[in-house]
Design brief:
Layout lengths: L22 H16 L6 E2 L8 E2 L10 E9 L3 H8 L5 H13 L5 E11 L4 H18 L2 E9 L9 E12 L14 E6 L8 H11 L6 E2 L4 E2 H5 L7 H11 L4 E6 L4 H7 L6 E6 L7 H10 L3 H5 L6 E7 L4 H10 L4 E9 L12 E3 L8 E5 L6
Parallel strand pairs: 4-5, 11-15
Antiparallel strand pairs: 1-2, 3-6, 4-6, 7-12, 7-13, 8-9, 10-12, 11-13, 14-15
Helix pairs in contact: 1-4, 3-4, 7-11
GO molecular function: ATP binding; phosphoribosylamine-glycine ligase activity; phosphoribosylformylglycinamidine cyclo-ligase activity
InterPro entries: PurM-like_C_dom (IPR010918), PurM-like_C_sf (IPR036676), PurM-like_N (IPR016188), PurM-like_N_sf (IPR036921), PurM_cligase (IPR004733)
Organism: Cellulomonas gilvus (strain ATCC 13127 / NRRL B-14078) (Cellvibrio gilvus)
Length: 382
C-alpha cells in the first residue's frame, strides 16, 4: 500500500506563491486602497477596512414607518476587456457602482452600502487599488458606503492580467413611497435622462464590430473627438443621488417610476415598469443619437432592431411622471446638471393596433408580464 509520504519529493518545494497566489501582493493592494474606501464611511459604518464582515448601524431604520430593504447585484460585463487592453483601471468602478445602485434607486430606495468582488489571475497591487479607488469614488457620488470587498487570485483560471468585477448593494425605502408599475397611469409622461455613452451593456456586440473592422483602440475618431478606446472606456453615469433628489422633490404623486436602461435596451426596460394594459409611445426622433451609437451601427452594419435591443442609445434612465409634474422634473434635472427631455407618453393599450411582433412593439421582456412600448419614427443622427 502506497502512503502519501512515499511520493517522489519535488526537486523544488511548492509554496502558495509558486502556485500563483501572492498573499503579500494582496496585503499591499489593501494598503493602497484603504484610504479611498474609508472616505465612503460615515458614522453608520463600524469597524475598519479588512474585517471579515462589514458592519453598518441600522438603528436609524426604527424611524421608518414600514422600511423595505432593496438589494441588487451585478458586474460590468466584457467592458473590463477594454480596461485591460488599455491598462486603464480607475474608471471601471463607476461602471460597477452604476450597474448596481441604479437598479436599487428604480424603486425609490436609497442605496446604503455596497460590497465588491474582484477575481484576477494575478494580483498587481496598483491595478487592484485603481479598480477599488474607482468603486469608492463612485460610491461617494451615489452617497453609498463601501463596507467591504474581496480580491481573489485565480492562477490558471484567469490569465495573469485578466480580472472580473462584481458587486452588491442594499438600500431602503418606505413602503408607501415605493415606486413602480403600481403607480403608473395612462396619461403619464416619460422623461429621458441622458447616458454618458455606452455605459456597461452591449460590449460583446461593440467589440465584435470593432474587431471585424480591424480598428485599434488607439485610433483617433473625428466624430467622437477622441480615440476609440477613450470613448469605449467612458464611465457609466451614476444616477442614484440625482434620481432620489428628483423623486423627493416631485413626491410619489408626481414621480411614479424609474427604469434603468441596461441590457435589452430602452424599450425592453421601460416595458418592465408598466402595468399590464398600458403602452408607452416613444418617438425615435425625439432626441439625437450620440455619435458612438451611429458609429457602431454603420461600422458593423448592425440592424437597427438589434442595436436598439442591445444598447441604451443615449438614454440611461427613464422617469415616469404625472403630466402636471413634467415641467418641474425637467427644471430640477437642469439644476442638477442632468440632461433630460420628454421621451413619450403612456396610454391604454389598443388590442387592434398594439400587436405583439409588430415593428417597434416590445413587450414581455425579462420574464415580466407587464406593459409594452411602441417605438415610432426614425432616429435622428448628427
Amino acid at each position: 500500500m502506497t502512503h502519501p509520504t512515499d511520493a517522489a519529493t519535488p526537486t523544488t518545494p511548492i509554496t502558495y506563491a509558486t502556485a500563483g497566489v501572492d498573499t503579500e501582493a494582496g496585503d499591499k493592494a489593501v494598503e493602497l486602497m484603504k484610504d479611498a474606501v474609508r472616505a465612503t464611511h460615515g458614522a453608520r459604518v463600524l469597524g475598519g477596512v479588512g474585517g471579515f464582515a462589514g458592519l453598518y448601524d441600522a438603528s436609524f431604520l426604527t424611524r421608518y414607518r414600514h422600511p423595505l430593504l432593496a438589494t441588487s447585484t451585478d458586474g460590468v460585463g466584457t467592458k473590463v476587456a477594454i480596461a485591460q487592453a488599455l491598462d486603464v483601471h480607475h474608471t471601471i468602478g463607476f461602471d460597477l457602482v452604476g450597474m448596481v445602485v441604479d437598479d436599487i434607486v428604480v424603486v425609490g430606495a436609497e442605496p446604503l452600502f455596497m460590497t465588491d468582488y474582484i477575481a484576477t489571475g494575478r494580483v498587481v497591487p496598483e491595478r487592484i487599488a485603481d479598480v477599488v479607488r474607482g468603486i469608492a469614488q463612485a460610491c461617494a457620488v451615489a452617497g453609498t458606503a463601501l463596507v467591504g470587498g474581496e480580491t481573489a487570485e485565480h492562477p490558471g483560471l484567469l490569465a495573469p492580467d485578466e480580472y472580473d468585477v462584481a458587486g452588491a448593494a442594499t438600500g431602503v425605502v418606505e413602503a408607501d413611497e415605493l415606486l413602480g408599475p403600481e403607480r403608473v397611469r395612462a396619461g403619464d409622461v416619460l422623461v429621458a435622462l441622458g447616458s454618458s455613452g455606452l455605459h456597461s451593456n452591449g460590449y460583446s456586440l461593440v467589440r465584435a464590430v470593432v474587431r471585424q473592422a480591424g480598428w485599434g483602440l488607439e485610433r483617433q475618431v473625428d466624430e467622437l473627438g477622441r480615440t476609440l478606446g477613450e470613448e469605449l472606456l467612458e464611465p457609466t453615469r451614476v444616477y442614484a443621488a440625482d434620481c432620489l433628489a428628483l423623486a423627493r422633490r416631485a413626491g410619489v404623486a408626481g414621480l411614479h417610476a424609474f427604469s434603468h436602461v441596461t441590457g435589452g435596451g430602452l424599450a425592453a426596460n421601460v416595458a418592465r415598469i408598466l402595468p399590464a394594459g398600458l403602452v408607452a409611445d416613444v418617438d425615435r426622433g425625439g432626441w439625437t443619437l450620440p455619435p458612438i451609437f451611429t458609429l457602431v451601427q454603420g461600422l458593423g452594419q448592425v440592424p437597427w432592431v438589434d442595436l436598439e435591443g442591445t444598447l441604451n442609445l443615449g438614454v440611461g434612465m427613464v422617469a415616469v411622471v404625472a403630466p402636471d409634474a413634467l415641467e418641474g422634473v425637467l427644471a430640477h434635472a437642469a439644476e442638477l446638471g442632468l440632461p433630460a427631455w420628454e421621451l413619450g407618453s403612456v396610454r391604454t393599450a389598443d388590442p387592434v393596433r398594439d400587436v405583439p411582433g409588430a415593428p417597434g412593439f416590445v413587450s414581455g421582456t425579462k420574464g415580466v408580464a407587464g406593459g409594452a412600448v411602441q417605438l415610432h419614427g426614425r432616429y435622428r443622427t448628427v
